[in-house]
Amino acid sequence: MKVVVVESPAKAKTINKYLGPGYEVLASFGHVRDLPAKDGSVDPEQDFRMLWEVDDKSNKRLNDIAKAVKGAEKLILATDPDREGEAISWHVLEVLKQKHALKSQPVERVVFNAITKQAVADAMKNPRQIDAALVDAYLARRALDYLVGFTLSPVLWRKLPGARSAGRVQSVALKLVSDRELEIERFVAREYWSLVAKLATPRNETFEARLVGADGKKIQRLDIGSGQEAEDFKKALETAAFTVQSVEAKPARRNPYPPFMTSTLQQEASRKFGFAPAHTMRLAQRLYEGIDIGGETTGLITYMRTDGVDIAPEAIASARSVIGKDYGPRYVPSSPRQYVTKSKNAQEAHEAIRPTDLTRRPADVRKLLEPDQAKLYELIWLRTIASQMESAELERTTVDIIAKVAARLLELRATGTVVKFDGFLTLYNEDQDDKSDEEDANRLPAMSTGEALQKREILASQHFTEPPPRYSEASLVKRMEELGIGRPSTYASILQVLKDRGYVRLDKKRLIPEDKGRVLTAFLENFFQKYVEYDFTANLEEQLDLISNNELPYKDVLRDFWRDFMVAISSIKDLRVAQVIDALDEVLAPHLFPPKPDGTDPRQCPNCGTGKIGLKLGRFGGFIGCSNYPECKYTRQLTAGPDGAGGGMRKLGEDPETKLEVTVRSGRFGSYLQLGEATKDEDGTAVKPKRASLPKGVSPDEIDLERALKLLALPRVVGKHPDDGEDIIAGVGRFGPYVKHGKTYANIGADEDILNIGLNRAVTLIEEKKANPGKGRRGADPGKQLGEHPQKGGMIVAKNGRYGPYVSHDGVNANLPNDKTPETITLDEAAALIDARPPKSGGSSARRKRPARGAATATKAAAPKAAPKAKAAPKTTVKAEPKVAAKPKKAAAASTAKAPSKSKKAKTPKAEAAE
Predict the structure, then answer these.
(1) What superfamily does domain 262-387 belong to in CATH?
(2) Considering 303, 331, 491, 531, which one is annotated as catalytic?
């Protein structure tokens, strides 16, 4: 019996069928061990010794593998064909050696780029040994990420209250988003005008020409900067005589796009379907692992984590055959097209993402796939086929026109493009969504030199320059790829971490940096500038590539990095929090305190009028507070609004009854409404103002005074229960909107309005709740069953919890992103959130509270064997921090102010540092 180890159980089942008797295929379920989320897992003083830990679940699977291997004639490691797959094979082999499961059995490493019978059979005929260089590159990357996280994050917790953690690549991606936001804020719109003449030929064929020159000088896009200039040109053109000066028609060819690699697939799926990169990769994973076709599970696409664009010769031949059959010989180029990857790392330049069988057209499998899977398969099929089609043949025509009026000579130009042969465009056009190819709309009528033209209309249009657009997830991936930051397998997870930790948010599919993300970026740029520079991060990636090519010892890279990094850490360890605040306040001043239109001091406190507002740091991050605190309790979030009042507070108006001001604000747990300000009663006790949370799905920008007053008036009586005549109450509580009858609480769905819910619906919800009260504490959400985990089995349930909605599977919980609810989350999305959670550490038995919604989820750290000789730490205390940083001290009241919202003390998410 030969034992084969793959990563997923779905793949194991399929490959077992392919190989048949004589083989036992077992799954490792991904990585089998990891660095424990505690200090010392990578020890620079011991030549970067790395201590690995196997969690309980992985240990059970490894025991099964070890048991099978002991009686086997051969061990075949067949994990994924990339750096991570190589590392998993190495980990499995190392653990089996430790368990003494291997005796004289040979060990082979095989890789296949597609899960098909032929690909697996070919791989088995061409075994090799584990690639030590690829493993070294993995070890270097893992050690670097760990050292940055576990060394820098504790410094952040001390010097930058509210910061969760920083990562080597994650922080650079965050800087990209923050820098783009700064560009937008600094942008000053510039007025410009364009002049277009609608002209007609003697045959009465009309077209448009644009003014491009006057009196021998070229006119660029922004050259006409005022309405008066535009009017002068318009008057001149109104009385001008128009003549064709020249007509030039040039042939052009447009070549097809290369087949997909990971980053381009993510970008195009986002552009065409609105898929997030993480969602695209989940769909691609399912297509790679395969579906049942004719009683046999078959992979539909090749491996989806690749930076290569080349295609196997047999696939090219198949594509050419399909093109000839479906579109005719005219669409088949004379010779096959070859594409070359831009990656400098040849060892990891695998085949492009393509269908495993190009004769399997999208229509053939559409009914076998989920809708999103079918869309992605069709996109991959179209792109692959188009990449081997003939080029499109175009004719680009340019007509130069002169307009004479009095002593002036004006120049106009008309351009048009005609498609002579559509070639690959008949099947695929990447730019069709942004309408960059308007060949038919730009077709020009026939004209000849010297021909007179008739004026139909002169149009002068005002325009304003626009700021650069915010990054979408797809465009950020593209930018990271251009800069050489990260690798194909990391893009989706980097974006997910930024969203989970609340550093960025998605709004209309655009990434907007949150205040704490901008403060973190400013901190790193000021005190760790080198480590968030794009070139530095890209150069480090190149070194990792050299390691994987066996051109550079990986420990040399670690030593060089660690030496300089420790110098940077040491340079700020003696800084006081107040010094950090002052530095950040100065750097962020243009963003935090933009000039006011009336010229008044932007730092003058709008509440007391005498204090100066400035940056403060609290337990939950940065905010703006008054220098007269505690006498003046004015606070707001960092982002300034259009009136300079700050994005954290917007005045809605005055309550007619109390005459108190109604404001919408942003706090730790989201946006909320507030009536008036905090006051003190006769004995000096603080009296909190009335507040109300905004219902889920309601934007702070949408709320008006009328609705705000209704929300502040909650809870309200919906009506009397028909059975006992008791009141049914509707309100918003810690678990969201609810209706209540007696001691029974029932949650209100996300698609229902708490202000308008009627008696009949309220009674129905109450009775449904009584019939199915759920388990655990009163009002606990029994959850919505989404289905079995695609790879691991076991039911995944979506629930509403104390800290927001989450999904749960086999004891592992994961918070939902801000744009998802238990009602809208899909099974694939939930499975991905579960899989993204770090594996549980086997040594910890302490229960951890779930962090607030949107916050990152942390790995459970192994419990220390012995506590240090110090004051007994509470249960929420995390493990000892790296030696480079001292224990955090409570910030003095003078250097921090009370945060805008209050909450129970949060636990320090130590394990997040390693991510």
Answers:
(1) Topoisomerase I, domain 4 (1.10.290.10)
(2) 303
Long-range contacts of the stretch 678-682 (C-beta < 8 A, 24+): 678/633
* Domain 2-130 classification at class level: alpha beta
Q: What would the two tokens of residue 687 be?
A: 């009296």
Question: Can you tell me the distance from the alpha carbon of 528 to that of 518, in angstroms, rounded to the nearest whole number?
Answer: 15
Q: What share of the chain is helix, strand, coil (3-state, %, to 5)?
A: 35, 20, 45
What 3 state SS string does 33-57 have?
A: CECCCCCCCEEHHHCCEECCECCHH
* Residue 512, SS3 per DSSP: strand
Query: pLDDT tens across 363-375, in order?
Result: 999 999 999 999 9
| Helices of type H across 549-625 | 554-572, 577-592
* CA proximity to 90, closest of 8, 191, 27, 5: 5
Question: pLDDT tens digits, residue range 135-164?
Answer: 999 999 999 988 888 888 788 777 776 666
Which residues on adjacent β-strands are paired with residue 479?
none
The dihedral through the CA atoms of 206, 210, 211, 217 has a sign that is negative
Distance between CA 790 and CA 828 in Å, rounded? Answer: 8
Q: Give CA–CA dist 76/493, Å, rounded.
A: 29
- Are 87 and 35 in contact by the 8 Å Cβ rule? The answer is no
Q: Going by C-beta distance under 8 Å and a sequence separation of 6 or more, which residues neighbour residue 682?
A: none
Alpha helix segments (H runs only) across 850-911: none
Domain segments of the chain: what residues?
2-130, 191-255+396-425+439-464, 262-387, 578-674, 714-771
User: CA of 41: how far to CAs of 34, 198, 503, in Å?
Assistant: 9, 72, 27
Q: What are phi and psi of 58, to 5 degrees?
A: -65, -35
Q: Which residues pair with 392 in a beta bridge?
A: 254
**Count of positions (residues) in the chain:** 915
Q: Is 303 a catalytic residue?
A: yes
CA-based nearest residue to 914, from 864, 876, 858: 858
**CA dihedral over 496, 500, 504, 510, signed as positive or negative:** positive
User: For 177-198, what is each residue's pLDDT tens digit?
Assistant: 999 998 988 888 999 999 999 9
Please state, in angstroms and as integers, the Cα–Cα distance from residue 195 to each residue in 11, 238, 860, following that order.
62, 11, 65
Top-tier CATH class for 191-255+396-425+439-464: mainly beta
Mapping DSSP to helix (H, G, I), strand (E, B) and coil, where does residue 537 land? helix
Query: What is d(CA 204, CA 187) in angstroms, rounded to the nearest whole number?
Result: 45
